[in-house]
Specification:
Blueprint lengths: L1 E10 L19 H42 L7 H12 L4 H11 L10 E9 L3 E9 L2 H14 L3 E2 L6 E9 L7 H11 L1 E6 L5 E5 L4 H12 L3 E10 L10 H18 L1
Antiparallel strand pairs: 1-3, 2-3, 2-4, 5-7, 5-8, 6-7
Helix pairs in contact: 1-2, 1-3, 1-7, 4-7, 5-6
Amino acid sequence: MATPLLRNCFPRRKLFQYSHISSLRFFVSTPALLSGHSRWSKIKHDKGKEDAVKNKQRSVLAQEIMHASKQYGPDMNGNAKLAAVVANAKKAGFPKASIEAAIARGQGRSPNGAALENLTIEAMIPPSVAAVIECQTDSKLKTLQDIRLLIGRFGGTMTPTTYMFERRGKVVFEKAEGVGSDEVLEEAIEAGATDVDVEEDGKVVVYTDPSSTKSTADTLAAALGLKIESSDIIWDPNEDTKITIDSEQVAGTLENFLGVAVKQIA
């Protein structure tokens, strides 16, 4: 059993493929077949989008359950946060086995009780997307094989990429009325934070050195009366290697890879 933590994948450059066909003729007497083919292509395209949305939701739910279990314990009777997240997951049709596995991972073990080990894999995924894939697994060799096959299936290669990222601690606090970056900044700096940001939905995000992630989160939560939504150590892409994804095809390829990875390895 392995849990992928796929972080901050981004394209470094765009690749273009050209195909050339000459002297090709079609003689068609049944246009309905072409129309049917077009409808089938659209159905597959729409289904692919729906699957990508479901897989993304699955990944988000698993992460929320894992974080709630890690922060406040695996017992839902004494962990209101975990109980609420699990209730939302059940409403979304999240499988019971996946819920139990996410709770166990939050405690650093697999559903059968085996201790989990960390595994980091670096890869380039078409079209020229650098990725750092982190997993927790009770079988490193099997997980490594599974991910290597998945990367190859999408035309990618395993190669060093961490030099394009920076290791940082990231703490997200639940939205609180009247609390923004200005209200948090001074306390955050004293607590050891390196940066403070606010997401579009009003949640305060604090970045720290990896080694002080937990202490900074606990200090700010106590000093400002904030609730910790998540606390994690991430691979943050360097500013000079970021690029805006403005191609639907490029974004679709990346989302498809991430979706399949979550579904296959989780």
